[in-house]
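Task: sequence in, structure out. Protein: Phosphoenolpyruvate carboxylase.
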Amino acid sequence: MVNSSAAQENPPVLDKDAPLKEDIRLLGRLLGDVLRDQEGEAVFDVVETIRQTAVRFRREDDAQAGQDLTALLHKLTREQTISVVRAFSYFSHLANIAEDQHHIRRRRAHLLAGSAPQQGSVSFALSKLKAAGVASDTVRTFFGDALIAPVLTAHPTEVQRKSILDAEHDIARLLAERDLPLTPRERVANMQLLHARIATLWQTRMLRYSKLTVADEIDNALSYYRITFLHELPGLYDDIEEEIAAHYPDQAAHAIDNSYVQMGSWIGGDRDGNPNVNAGTMQHALVRQATTILDFYLDEVHALGAELSISTLMVGASPALQALADASPDQSPHRSDEPYRRALIGMYARLAATARSLGATNILRKEVGHAAPYGDAAAFCADLDVLADSLRANHGQLLVKPRLATVQRAAAIFGFHLASLDMRQTSDVHERVLAELFAAAGVEADYTKLAEEQKVQLLLAELAQPRLLYSPYAQLSEETASELAILRAAKDIRQRYGKRAIRNYIISHTETVSDLLEVLLLQKETGLLRPRDRQLDAMVIPLFETIPDLQRAAGIMNEWMALPLVKELIAHQGQLQEVMLGYSDSNKDGGFLTSNWELYKAEIHLVKVFADAGVKLRLFHGRGGTVGRGGGPSYEAILAQPPGTVNGQIRLTEQGEIIASKFSNAEIGRRNLELLVAATLEASLMPHPAEGAKAEQLAGFEAIMADLSERAYKAYRNLVYETPGFTDYFFSATPIAEIAELNLGSRPASRKSTKRIEDLRAIPWGFSWGQCRLLLPGWYGFGSAITQWAEEGRRDEKIATLQAMFKEWPFFATLLSNMDMVLAKTDLAIASRYAGLVADVELRERIFKRISAEHGTTLRCLEMITGAHERLAGNPLLARSIQNRFAYLDPLNHLQVELIHRHRALSGEPGKVDERVHRGIHLSINGVAAGLRNTG
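Result:
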């Protein structure tokens, strides 16, 4: 018995994670029931024995359990192996769903408790700004001028099929229902549906048997608009407007601009290294995007017609609304006194006509009669304004908010194009295309042989010419014809879908000013640049990726903005120029520490160059999913940007599987969008101490980082690019070869058909290290750099300085926080099993020993600086999440190693590929990726 008085004095500590554990147990039990029913008791017993042994091995650090686990996995038949891999993979998926639901649950509990605003919310950011003395006019100006743009990209690490995502979305909905007060009958029905959905998941093929096309990638991305963006982004605008009014009451009467958050996309327009992207995929992307948004408008306008049953016998209507009603094809006498309905029926007819004119082929509800299509989205917005203005003028203010205001915001945000589609191509292609055009026109026999200064002179001279290089009678290569067709398609898309449909052209591997001028000239050739009018339709955006490119970035932009023609074009762009920074390639090129430092330095130098030129800088951050590719929490990353680099302007990529992680749940999607706005608001407007002791201290920190970066760079480059046999080790000790065979995306894993790390894309590079649980791109070189620097005199003083850097410099704190997360997911014991796949024993031991030593050094250095001797001490929820996953990840990794060993043993013999083994490897890749929650 419990003493009641003692219980009152010491109330039991509530386990905030108890509902999460309950959900995971429930989903695990249902999965077990499905497994028993579908595969039989024997398979269920095998899976359960493996699970219990893995848990014992992890929790008790039991060596015997480890041996038992290995023996169990070795004894599995091929058929059992597939079932076990699928079981553990699906458990990882279900655990992700439960964790997402728990995040939502905890946030709602926080809001219901009336607690102080959470860090990362707009309310929290506004509170900080007000406390810092930031005026309301400054906040209003920010929202009037800002552009915050998440850009969805498709990359060859997305391992989820849309069918799987749809099933999991339904499971998430049913799990959320269980937090509601349900009757016993409703709870039973909910359980039955959950059981059925998990059974559906089990019976659904996890892998693609055919290569994913660009069209598939487009449709996959558009599913997140229907789940999250179409409803949650307008809703976020409403929330932000209310928060501003609460914190700055003098702004309550002012509406906030509807365009400071806009969506972007690369899917269908990014052809760098992807031969499957062309003019046709761009046009298809816009057709599908327009169809998605117009379907949304049609549904909402239809619903408004049902809701706004307002009669002029009861209340008046504005003349403009009456005119809109009179123009409607609806002449029913039953609605003669219902002008809103008649107006909406007319608007529906116009939208249906618009959808057909923009490529939609399936309008679900037929319109009442014929109407002309809208000329553009602005005309649709104007009609919505007529409805809203009439309601407000005639006692209908309450009727605007529920749906009409949302449609108004959506129309302003998404237009008829939904998202701005970026074009991207590598500079080498532009050079080849222009070389061919110059030669065909008799202007320059071999453009590629010219020096940089000669190229710039020739390009500027040609830009001043009224005539074109292109002739319809010239015989051009397939590459040149395709590139010109893409730019012509861009011009047509802008005319059909609006100017925001395409407005950016990104140049990969920008190394010189001529790389930028070449794209200007190609736009001139296709009508996107009109030099005489100084009108440029697609902003030319350099992408600086490698370490040398980042170091040259400021100098190139200085030269670029000094050109008279460019100055005038930038003026027409609102005195704004965008620069994209590549995180993935710089990391693969120089390692984690150096990549982050060179990005930071490049930003500081760009800020100065742009300030001197009087041009506003917008940075486009090409961040990946994992820390090794520039990933990690976006909120902290934005706040850690150098002063002057945000200023209300930021674009950043959301890549591959991270899109699903952030936006496959509407509520979590809303939270992630709010984090972007809150971080941008705070980073842009919070005062930065820039003088005195603080500035002197920062300069000292930066000097230390420069030294550490140089040392880390040498350590990383020495291992990856200078160690004999490292390439062979990498291709043997990771599943890179098997990853390349997966039907993950439309883009090849390597830029060239070689076995060189230099030619491998950064994404599968990071993906492979994640699969073998080393995650080397996220930490290697840090330990060597710190150790060498600290040992060169005054060690204690240097350690104290590093500790001060961690406490007082957001850049360094974020760097270490991200590395801490990577190290929490790293497992050398698992990685050693993959190293066993390297046939050359001497090579295996030599390289793995180096990696292990650096890992140990890195851990010691991290603990010395932060004072935390456990990973993720500052984020216990994430730490528990990762630890809980290991028991289910370990068997997958062990199985993957065994399957790769069997597969490679057979693959050397002609015609001897075991398809079951092959499929098992791919299933394990899916499961590990889901378990780690960042694959690339």
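The first strand starts at residue 147 and ends at 153.
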